[in-house]
């Protein structure tokens, strides 16, 4: 059967000499894997860039895990600037991160529309800084059910139990001092974060996701993000 839907491209890898396989988070079906050919007569693969919104139609067979794309094009709501190094780097970071944590092959319209709003903010903003990523990572916890418990006073943040606590836990999976304060600021919106605080915060947020989702998250795009936001 044919599936016509909107989707956000998470990653695309070369398959063989003339094909590409893509992971796309769709409005109708959640995560799907697609395949398309690369040829002089077909430019479909050009639309399969990291963290872009596409309108696509593909052939879906229940017996197969990979579905062939029939038609694809960019959503008209977005204006992509491939020459903007910062936005392109942020797009790669978000797409790589999402490809690690989103596994569901079922519809999740609330999460989809949140990610679409993030993409719209990214493409429409004149300037993007590290706060954009901090804001994205903190707000996403609400959609995944891992929002930290904000308690005061505190001396550390327990990454394992997702709470700010007033005494050190009997394990070593926690952050304290300035790192814990920055973490609290990010989720409570109390006080401003310096650029150096945000840099360390992004790493701690990724560590937090790894623990809460029981999924080690190593991103190849992280060093690039650290360089452009230095």
Question: Your description of this structure?
Answer:
This protein is an alpha+beta fold and 230 residues long. It folds into two domains: 2-74, Nucleic acid-binding proteins (OB fold (Dihydrolipoamide Acetyltransferase, E2P), Beta Barrel); 129-228, no CATH class. The chain has helices at residues 85-101, 109-124, 130-144, 177-188, 195-212, 222-228; strands at 2-15, 19-26, 30-37, 53-59, 66-74, 156-158, 163-165, 174-176. Strands 1-2-3-5-4 form a five-stranded mixed β-barrel. A hairpin with a 6-residue loop joins strand 4 and strand 5. Helix 2 (109-124) runs antiparallel to helix 3 (130-144).
List keywords for this structure.
230 residues, alpha+beta, OB fold (Dihydrolipoamide Acetyltransferase, E2P), 2 domains, 5-stranded mixed beta barrel, 3-stranded antiparallel beta sheet, 6 helices, 8 strands, 37% helix, elongated
